[in-house]
Amino acid sequence: MNITVIGRGNIGGGLAGLWERAGHKVERLGREGGDAGTADAVLLAVPGDAVQSALASVTGLSGQTVLDATNLYGDVKPPAGFPSNAEYVRSVTGGPTAKVFNTNIAALYQQIADTRVRPSNLWSGDEQARRLVEQLSHDAGYEAVRLGDLSMAATQESLAHAVVAIAQGGLGPFVYRLATPDQL
After folding, report:
1. Which of 1, 19, 65, 121 is most buried, taking the most CB atoms under 10 A from its CB?
2. Which residues contact 21 (CB under 8 A, 6 or more apart)?
3. Rounded CA separation 34/55 (Å)
4. Model confidence over 11-61: pLDDT tens digits?
5. Beta carbons of 40 and 132 less than 8 angstroms apart
């Protein structure tokens, strides 16, 4: 699969490395932007307040499936008129969109392959993005768990605050598994 990653930080860079090891071709775009026109999937992994400028610097996004891994920390809000960054992303690209990879701790990416069972990766978004979300979650070492359609993206963006609070509250960096009892 051809994947364009917008953002070279911990999340974008970390996932790009995992996907390359899984055999995917990954193009990494930074602040200078670039073209995503040949991508099968696009990962948006920039600070939450940089979504508008990041998307403006990339061509070839029309109709693309975009996986939005951004978070809204502090006083950062989604662009005016949108309840979530993911819903703004869909309005710009017009393609299937998913909020995903934003409730996992990037510092643990290299340890995921060593877990006894696959940790969960929450996602919400368009049904048309499901196949890509599930495949790329699997290839990064996670099991995708759907929270709902894209209207749940704002809830998921808020959940990232709880993940940070739990880690900072004493547990430290962690993974999570959402499963039925028979799967544990």
Report:
1. 121
2. none
3. 10
4. 999 999 999 999 999 999 999 999 999 999 999 999 999 999 999 999 999
5. yes
Helix segments in 24-183, DSSP class H: 51-56, 85-93, 130-139, 153-166
What CA–CA distance (Å, rounded) separates 132 from 134? 5
Q: Tokens 């099991």 identify what position? A: 143
Rg (CA), the chain: 15
Give CA–CA dist 7/73, Å, rounded. Answer: 17
Q: How far apart (Å, rounded) are the C-alpha atoms in residues 105 and 182?
A: 26
pLDDT grade, residue 183 (50/70/90)?
confident
Which tokens belong to 102?
Answer: 């934003």
Alpha carbon of residue 174 to chain centroid: 17
Structure letter (DSSP) for residue 122: E
41-44/66-68 β-pairing = parallel
Does the pLDDT value for residue 74 go beyond 90?
no
Confidence of residue 163 (pLDDT cuts 50, 70, 90): very high
